[in-house]
């Protein structure tokens, strides 16, 4: 009989914890959740004050028997699931199954799986935090009601099997709205004038950019304006009006939160959110390191705080001073967002002495990449600022002003180790100007002009969508990855390289949901509900109050929509393509993979065809039409139409004529029979 039984979620976590505790302690895994709402029905008793109808998860019967047996044979049972709302809920469900009363001191939590953290956690157990459990229940029950009540609307109007979700549908809406912005965008013309000037003393050239007239900025919008300025400065001298020299500091980014880790792993490593969280989970739970055994390499990876412990701060200081010198250390604190829960530290390495390169052989390729990213980001966050010498020069040409800016890196500081990347931001480079003096006349080498057009907002990537969700207060650290994974799997969006693009199915579903459930599928409602969940977690609100307040108006909307649908005969959009089996004009349908053509005579005639997208550019090898296809992972590639017949072998990831930036016009053609989806 074990003195203590500790139950965690995963075998990897169990193996790491075992070595920190005595031989009379047994550590086993529940393999995640053991109870959940049933899949086959709503599972929420609306008539009984929204009581959830939890059942044991199918296929876990033997595991539950084993857990009960081990618990019965132990003197004390501790539940050491992850330190967040989901982990608290798993502990609560385990307590129910094992017959442990709610007020029993049985809950153990630790932010990192290190010897000190584990031993301290076991020494200081607590009761299960029912406020955290209720916050998780509120989310689970509300999302179940929304999904199970709204989805049938999609079944009636689009296709059976489709599903709607509170947060996922808002994420789809953001992507669809962005696509509409791009499609409606009208480019605006603008011009720049560049003067290549020479410092007469050093004979060094540098570039100055047109700014304005009499020190007032002017936006150039057409060639007429540009030609007028060129004419007026043609014979003017270029004189330095003023020089401003300053020292600029650049401070390191804070240690990772879940959101910033996902964004950087996407930008720097090309990881999907799902992959990032899976690899991080493995690093947190434990990796076998020769000479150390199973080691939890990072702190808990679901957090929105940038706080770090004083112990970690001291360790970072020692490492920085040893490796880079005292000048490179700076004791730095970062302000955590007012919306952050701050229950856990930022994501950081648990042992700074375990440098990435020293344990590289013990890690998988992906584990090494992510661990190095987390490690370097944390160490850099405690390093001194980078220092730049900057120079800003105002140059007069008659009544007109040109400006030149230069900078030189003086002290690298944290940039020795790590520099944060940002979407659509150019890398900071040295652009050193000659040693110039005020009132100095410069030699005009040449004048160039450049016509440009404003560009539409970029499509979301996984990284930029996470940033948008966080800024709009939609979801929480634990939800970002499931949100994007779900809408990709449902084929509401797809990836075109790294960009997230709404599918035809996604646009149709979004339109229907906005038309019928605009009160639910909107950013403000979703953000407000998240804040209410937070209030439940803090003990400021009863979880069922949220459901009660939401349900009555939502149920009225459902009844109204269902009533309207009763009188609506849904007609499929008819194409001009005849069925090659029975001659009827085929209609457009929506399936798992989006829009396709089907015979309206189903089930007598089961003919169906995919809709094939072609581009205007011809095959560079044979001049045939080029068809756009998608890989299993959703990446677009290009194939000659003659490829299938063996007449041409052209196939490429890159679109023919990739120098063209405009979106290709789509054409619709068909290919021979496929089975109807």
The helix count comes to: 16
Strand order of the largest sheet: 10-11-17-16-13-18
Morphology call: globular
Radius of gyration (Å): 31 Å
Helix-and-strand structural type: alpha+beta
| Separation, N- and C-terminal Cα atoms | 56 Å
Global mean pLDDT: 89
Strand content: 15-25%
Please give the share of residues in helix.
25-40%
**Biggest sheet architecture:** 6 strands, antiparallel, barrel
Spans of at least 5 consecutive residues with low confidence: 659-677
| Total beta strand runs | 30
Which descriptors would you attach to this protein?
six-stranded antiparallel β-barrel; 34% helix; 30 strands; single chain; five-stranded antiparallel sheet; 16 helices; 677 residues; alpha+beta
Structure write-up:
The chain has 677 residues and is α+β, with helices and mostly antiparallel strands. Helices cover 34% and strands 24% of the residues. The protein contains 16 helices and 30 strands. The strands form nine sheets. Strands 10-11-17-16-13-18 form a six-stranded antiparallel barrel. Strands 21-22-23-24-30 form a five-stranded antiparallel beta sheet. β19 and β20 (499-502) form a beta hairpin. It is globular.
């Amino acid at each position: 009989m074990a003195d203590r039984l500790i139950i965690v979620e995963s075998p990897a976590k169990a193996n790491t914890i075992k070595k920190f505790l005595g031989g009379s302690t047994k550590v086993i895994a529940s393999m995640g959740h053991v109870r959940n709402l049933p899949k086959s029905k709503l599972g929420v008793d609306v008539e009984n004050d929204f009581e959830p109808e939890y059942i044991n998860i199918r296929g876990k019967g033997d595991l539950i028997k084993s857990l009960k047996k081990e618990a019965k044979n132990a003197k004390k049972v501790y539940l050491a699931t992850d330190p967040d709302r989901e982990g608290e809920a798993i502990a609560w469900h385990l307590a129910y199954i094992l017959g442990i009363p709610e007020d029993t001191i049985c809950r153990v939590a630790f932010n990192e799986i290190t010897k000190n953290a584990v031993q301290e956690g076991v020494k200081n157990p607590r009761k299960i935090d029912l406020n955290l459990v209720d916050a998780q229940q509120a989310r689970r029950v509300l999302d179940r009601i929304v999904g199970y009540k709204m989805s049938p609307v999609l079944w009636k109007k689009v296709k059976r099997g489709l599903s709607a979700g509170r947060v996922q549908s808002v994420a789809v809406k953001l992507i669809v709205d962005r696509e509409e912005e791009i499609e409606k965008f009208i480019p605006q013309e603008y011009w720049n004038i560049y003067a290549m000037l020479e410092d007469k003393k050093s004979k060094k050239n540098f570039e100055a950019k047109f700014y304005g007239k009499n020190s007032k900025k002017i936006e150039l919008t057409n060639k007429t304006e540009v030609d007028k300025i060129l004419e007026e400065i043609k014979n003017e001298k270029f004189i330095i009006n003023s020089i401003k020299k300053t020292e600029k500091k650049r401070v390191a980014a804070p240690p990772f939160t879940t959101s910033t880790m996902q964004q950087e792993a996407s930008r720097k490593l090309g990881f999907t959110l799902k992959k990032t969280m899976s690899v991080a989970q493995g690093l947190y739970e434990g990796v076998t390191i020769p000479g150390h055994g199973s080691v939890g390499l990072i702190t808990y990876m679901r957090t929105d705080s940038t706080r770090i412990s004083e112990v970690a701060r001291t360790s970072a200081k020692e490492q920085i001073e040893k490796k880079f010198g005292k000048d490179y250390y700076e004791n730095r604190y970062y302000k955590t967002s007012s919306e952050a829960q701050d229950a856990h530290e930022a994501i950081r390495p648990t042992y700074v002495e375990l440098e990435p390169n020293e344990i590289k052989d013990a890690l998988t390729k992906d584990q090494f990449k992510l661990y190095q990213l987390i490690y370097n980001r944390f160490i850099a966050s405690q390093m001194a600022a980078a220092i730049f010498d900057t120079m800003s020069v105002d140059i007069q040409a008659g009544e007109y002003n040109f400006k030149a800016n230069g900078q030189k890196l003086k002290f690298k500081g944290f940039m020795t180790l790590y520099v944060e990347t940002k979407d659509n931001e150019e890398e900071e480079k040295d652009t050193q100007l000659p040693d110039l003096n005020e009132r100095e006349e410069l030699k005009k080498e040449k004048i160039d002009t450049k016509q440009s057009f404003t560009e539409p907002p970029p499509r979301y990537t996984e990284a930029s969508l996470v940033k948008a969700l966080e800024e709009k207060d939609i979801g929480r650290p634990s939800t970002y990855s499931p949100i994007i994974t779900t809408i990709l799997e449902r084929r509401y969006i797809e990836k075109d390289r790294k960009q997230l693009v709404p599918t035809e199915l996604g646009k149709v579903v979004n339109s229907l949901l906005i038309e019928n459930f605009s009160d639910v599928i909107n950013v403000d409602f979703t953000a407000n509900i998240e804040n209410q969940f937070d209030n439940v977690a803090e003990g400021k609100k009863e979880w069922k109050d949220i459901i009660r307040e939401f349900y009555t108006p939502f149920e009225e909307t459902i009844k109204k929509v269902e009533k309207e649908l009763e009188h609506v005969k849904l007609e499929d959009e008819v194409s001009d393509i005849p069925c090659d089996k029975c001659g009827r004009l085929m209609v457009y349908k929506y399936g798992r993979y989006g829009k396709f053509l089907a015979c309206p005579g189903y089930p007598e005639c089961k003919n169906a065809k995919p809709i094939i997208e072609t581009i205007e550019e011809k095959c560079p090898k044979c001049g045939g039409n080029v068809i756009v296809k998608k890989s299993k992972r959703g990446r677009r590639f290009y194939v000659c139409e003659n490829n299938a017949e063996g007449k041409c072998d052209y196939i490429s990831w890159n679109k023919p004529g990739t120098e063209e930036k405009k979106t290709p016009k789509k054409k619709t053609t068909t290919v021979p029979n496929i089975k109807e989806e």
